[in-house]
Amino acid sequence: MQHRTLTPLVRTTLAAAASLLVLTACGGDDSGGNAGTPAVGAADQLFDTDFQQVCDGVGQPAATAYTPVAGSISPVVVLVQQEGFMSSRSSAVRAGWERVWEADATMKMAELQLVACVTRTNAVRVQECDGYEIDGAVTDNVVHLNETTYDIVLRAAATGEEVARTSVTAADDSCPMFVSFSDGETEKEWYSFDDAAVQDFLTPHVAP
Question: Which of 19, 49, 58, 198 has its CA at 20 to 30 Å from residue 90's CA atom?
Answer without folding.
Answer: 58
